[in-house]
Design goal:
Elements: H1 2-32, E1 44-50, E2 57-64, E3 70-80, E4 99-101, E5 106-112, E6 124-134, E7 144-154, E8 159-160, H2 167-171
Antiparallel strand pairs: 1-2, 2-5, 3-4, 3-6, 5-8, 6-7
Length: 173
């Protein structure tokens, strides 16, 4: 009888430990599963600037202005002025991982404005850039309009890179 009581007590303690462990594991998994939001119009600032090298390039910068980290998914979708089509993406520039921005940190995309050898067509001056973000689920955000530096010349060879964590990586394409 005593053996049966000891066995029952042991089983009760084991069950209590398992329930406690399961509750702790469930709480930890719930904490881990909290999604990181996409970098968006609401939690970022976007700027564009000329760069001295490489020729015919600009640097697009998105800075996390929110209080939480965000993911800069994929690449920005760009359109110059009132263009209906978006600028093609440099497929070779895809990073190994999604760029994560802590508050105050920035991600970068290189913009190739035109063909350096003059082989592009439909060249024109552009004054604004419409920028949309990948929301992480394959959809694009509304566009943010950013004023371009004066004298920005674009042609049919314009292209943009994926978001990069480093300026040099963004401008190497």
């Amino acid at each position: 009888m005593r053996t049966a009581r000891l066995a029952a007590t042991g089983l009760t303690l084991t069950a209590a430990l398992l329930v406690g462990t399961a509750a702790t594991t469930a709480a930890a998994q719930a904490a881990e599963a909290a999604p990181v939001p996409a970098c968006s119009l609401e939690n970022t600032k976007t700027t564009v600037q000329n760069v001295p090298r490489p020729i015919n390039h600009q640097l697009l910068t998105v800075t996390n202005t929110g209080s939480e980290r965000c993911f800069a998914y994929g690449h920005p979708s760009l359109a110059f002025d009132a263009a209906q089509n978006v600028v093609p993406v440099v497929d070779e520039s895809i990073p190994q991982a999604v760029v994560t921005l802590e508050p105050g940190e920035s991600a970068y995309a290189g913009i190739n404005l035109s063909a350096a050898d003059g082989s592009g067509t439909d060249g024109r001056y552009a004054s604004v850039l419409r920028v949309s973000y990948d929301e992480g689920d394959g959809t694009q955000s509304r566009a943010r309009t950013v004023k371009l530096p004066e004298g920005t010349w674009v042609d049919s060879k314009a292209a943009v890179t994926y978001w990069q964590s480093d300026v040099d990586l963004a401008l190497m394409w």
